[in-house]
Automatic annotation (TrEMBL):
GO terms for biological process: mRNA cis splicing, via spliceosome. GO terms for cellular component: U1 snRNP; U2-type prespliceosome. It is found in: Nucleus. This is Uncharacterized protein. Residues 602-611, 617-679 have a biased composition (Basic and acidic residues). It comes from Rhizoclosmatium globosum. The keyword Zinc does not apply. Its main location: nucleus. InterPro entries: FF_domain, FF_domain_sf, Prp40-like, WW_dom, WW_dom_sf.
Amino acid sequence: MNPWPIPPSGMPMMPGMPPIPGMPPMPGMPPIPGMGMPPGMPPVPGMMPQQKEPEWIAHTKPDGKVYYYNRVTQQSTWEKPEELKTPLERALSACPWKEYKTEDGRKYYSNTVTRETVWKVPAEYQAIIDRFEVIMPPTPADPAPLVPVSSNVVVIPVNFDSREEAEKAFKQMLEEADIGLDWTWEQTMRKVINNPMYRCLKTLTERKQAFQSYVEDKKNSIKQAAEEKLAYERDSFAVLLGSLGADLTITLRYKKMAEVFAEDPVFLSIEPERRMELFEEFMTEFRKKDADEKRALRKENVERFKHILKTTTTITATTTWQEAQQLWASHPDFLPPSPNSVNPLHSMEAIDILVTFEDHMKHLEAAFFEEFDAKRKAEKRRERQLRDEFRSLLDRLVEEGIIHVHSKWKEIYPYVAEESCYNEMLGQPGSNPLELFWDVLVGLEDRYLSVRKDALEAVRASGIDITVQTSFSEFETLFKNFNRGRYDQNTLKQIFDELMHRAIARSKDDEKRKERRTRKRLDAFKSLLKHLSPRLTSVATWEKVKPLVKGTDEYGDLEEAQRVYVFDRFLKKLKAREQADESSSSEESGDDGEKSRKRKSSGRERDLRRDDKKRRTAEDERDSRRDERDIRKDDRRDGSRRDERDIRRDDRDVRETREVRDIPRDIPREVPREERRPSLGELEEGEL
């Protein structure tokens, strides 16, 4: 069995299939050997000459695609050979514009020379088609009837004065020929090509344009007639429904309307489907109009009610709903115009009244809070201005030297008590006058500490101690030599007062320490005189006693005047004691019994005096030890006070600075003479 069955005679080969013997090859395939007469073979003798068959034969694939086969050369091609082309196709093949189709069948044109592609038929391409269409015979397959043209007919040319008249005549010809709207130009041309009016337009393009215009005009006229008919039916139906009067409501149904006009000729003249469409159109418009009227009335009532609320001045932001109802009910615009009439506002829905009232209250509240905010801003602005004025007042007092780092509020109060900015600030929120005063002191304190640090550095660098005898001019000169920058003289004066206060305190401590040390030395010298051996008597003199005590430490610690002073005081008390003893002895010599009693009494007195003497001696020793402890303690305290590290630590200690603020301004520069150490003549016995 042959695996390659031979297709029926006349069936072409599909592209891509292997060639079958006896079948023409597809385009691009080589010629099949053995087909036709062998080359060089002479014709068979006696064979009759036959009619020459065409060289090219067209074959169609199952998908409708055509290819061509040459019997002689045994070649196949997809392109149509020149021998099979019509004169129009040969003319178009010489044109650079070629026609192509997209996948959806749409035609487009491409120029093989310029590579330009367009959708519209090029003029050059169309001119070739127009030239051949004039002489193209009608196709028998076209539905238009063929009109033979006799060779004896003489064609009379038709001429018109204008193109518009010619186009009008051409359209009249189409109208008389009863050309349909769905006819193509080819169908139309075949029917009217023998009509003399066909050539009233010179070119084929003009005829086509007139044909398209005729079709459009006919469509428009048909459309216009249909629209006029619809308009007439719509108007007639509207008049019909309008005759219902009060029965015409937004709830009217088509069934009820059809029952009412069942015998009406106008109603019956309209098709049933058209009646329902017209009814729905009319009711839709009627309901829309009714809704618009209600909406307009509602809007008008809302605006009138807003006007009532605005003109009722008794309604404020704090008015309640119950109070507002009573207020607008008595408004003239809310009352009926006449006793028998009805105010449209009374037909307003409660929700509209409530919403309008709420909107009005929101506006009132917004206006209230806006006014409140404006007043509050004005108050805050005024409060800020008062604070600025008071700060300016404090700055002026600082420049005048009235306010300094050690100032107290009670000191500057008299300067600000009568100022209007101070009195208006009282009771207002925010920073009060006292706090602003403290802010000024903080700024002065920062400046004060900076200048104080430079001043202490200047004192330490100069190696000069600030004493009670130092004047401010000397201190200022010292500071200027150390610091070349600008400074505040008032601040420098406060620093000098602080240093002077320290110097005075230190001087007083030194005086007290010297006095304690002197008292201790006087007591030690007095104790030395008491314990001399032999004991001193009231007749002793300083010249005799001096050699006895000259080599002692107690003697060397005192000056000569102090030694004589202690010796004289000691000798004076010794004489007084001896006189007391003598007077007591003379009283005992009177009576023996009395002497005996007095002797016993004097013995007891001697014991008492001895005990008293021991007690005083012990007290003196205890006082001496206490004085020594006090002196050592004072020495340690003085050393710590003079320590420079304590001074630097004081600079960092803010509390020490705030304590300095309370130092009186009127510190004495020198210690009065009466406050200095007392003279030796002023010391009592217990003070030695």
